[in-house]
């Protein structure tokens, strides 16, 4: 009996410790108290928030619930949307496609007007057909899989984050603006670098005026890249696009410069890192790299972060700015449309600009936010400068 | 033809880099039949020492030529003391043990040194200044080779010639050959085997340090992990040439470097490692002891 008592006390102590340890994440959890099965009362505008609110990927999903609550509170304080008070209803899909379909079905039966979500691309893809059938507009802050918008299958889907291939598209169009015709595309054989290089290759091949003269993977950490550099030279390339990270990029670019190969070197946000400039030194000068747009100076972004700190007592998590922007864009579109009518809301999203933390945005015909995503930077005098 | 030449010189540089590191592997194996897996880390420590010394001397305003010489000397002393200590702590107590124990000990040493440098210095990449004399070749030769590569190739040749003469004509060299042939017998005729083994580690580590400074200066960046990848390749080169044989290590390194360069140039760099290791397998099928290795290896 005594031992049992001890065990119980011990268990309680451990639980207490865990609760003490799970500081900020926990707090956010409690705030984003996920209600399930709440039926929306009439006369209210219900904003459904779907995503991973528990499990491994909860840290990606919970910030969007907080963002939605903050936006709703802000609009409600100003009299609501079209005179209706906004209510946020959250549903958890744990980023699992099979749960996402259940969540979507639940949202539809709860008469949710618009949906912010889902978080993961796979779950989003599974849920979209159900929303489409019920003509509900969906906007994701984080699903970056390109076909979600580009396939054209889901006219009800929008997103406030740039798709995976947006960076490559920008890279290639920038290379074109430099007047480059023959490009050597090099990558580091890794998921990220090779994926980026692959998209670049596709975009270059789709362009009649440009061609890929060399497409190769280099081994990260190798002692010497001179053979690859000779190959770039003999391929007659007038520019190099590199997909990967800064250690290889600095080896390749310094090797090129040491061998009198002065063609432009373009890379991705794995290279848009000050370490690259430190390591490559003088050879970094003039290198182009794409990187996420910087919205830290955006007033609405700063206001949203301050609101989050005041409300939840912590810094916002990943995809918070995108989620805040999505909630704002959705609710503003409802306001502009004057109702939650599917066609009118879509029309409003595509035609009217909204000021959000990620900038002033509207959406293109496919559902991607225009002007969100990446910018081109160039190393000038030892630091990255954005090229307008 | 030009393209072939460019690739050939690229491969030559790469082979020289491998050779500088492979010599240490092969010498130690020749003497005590142990693969010193910590050798790559000794090379890495040499590079770090060179970086720190060069940094200090540059701020003190020393002339460039003296910086290279002093950095090399400091790196050699520091790496040699590491090599000596690693042998004393990690391998000597296990000399009578079964074959696998020192091998595991060597892997442990390698991991320990890597993490030690990572914690003591930084896990980030650090820029390494060009310490070697800079001069430009005239076009079109500038496209084929640059000064730091030439320095590496010349240094490798000098080191190999020096080492061969040392083994052949000095007393210590003779003692090394004797120890390699038969340790017990050498002891009986009065060779101080402990001293010979320590000397082998010191020499091998010194070569790795020279390699570390020159190669880092050529590549322009270092971090705590460079020893691992370079070590694996250099070890492959040593096995290819016949582990335990000094000319074998050089030949193996050259063959490996050239294979990688031509595989990259004429096929694709995606497959450079595939070609390198296919070559290793092929050669070992036909010559199990490596190119220069003898069945009962005439070590060192």
TrEMBL record, chain A:
- Keyword Translocase present in the record's keywords: the answer is no
Q: Any keyword Phosphoprotein?
A: no
Organism domain of life: Bacteria
Q: Which residues form the Leucine-binding protein domain?
A: 47-382
Signal peptide position in this chain?
1-22
Q: PROSITE patterns annotated for this entry?
A: PROKAR_LIPOPROTEIN
Pfam families this protein is in? Peripla_BP_6
CDD domains cross-referenced by the UniProt entry: PBP1_ABC_LIVBP-like
- Keywords in alphabetical order: Amino-acid transport, Signal, Transport
Q: Which GO terms describe its biological process?
A: amino acid transport
The Swiss-Prot or TrEMBL record describes its family as follows: Belongs to the leucine-binding protein family.
Record's protein name: ABC transporter substrate-binding protein
Species source reads Pseudodesulfovibrio alkaliphilus
UniProtKB/TrEMBL annotation, chain B:
Q: Does the keyword NADP apply?
A: no
Q: Where in the cell is it found?
A: Cell membrane
A GO cellular component annotation here is: plasma membrane
InterPro entries, alphabetized: ABC_transp_permease, BCAA_transport_permease
GO terms for MF: L-isoleucine transmembrane transporter activity; L-leucine transmembrane transporter activity; L-phenylalanine transmembrane transporter activity; L-valine transmembrane transporter activity
Q: Which Pfam families match?
A: BPD_transp_2 (PF02653)
Tell me what this protein is called: Branched-chain amino acid ABC transporter permease LivH
Q: Where are the transmembrane segments?
A: 15-35, 42-60, 66-84, 104-123, 143-167, 188-216, 274-293
Q: Give GO terms for biological process.
A: D-alanine transmembrane transport; L-alanine transport; L-isoleucine import across plasma membrane
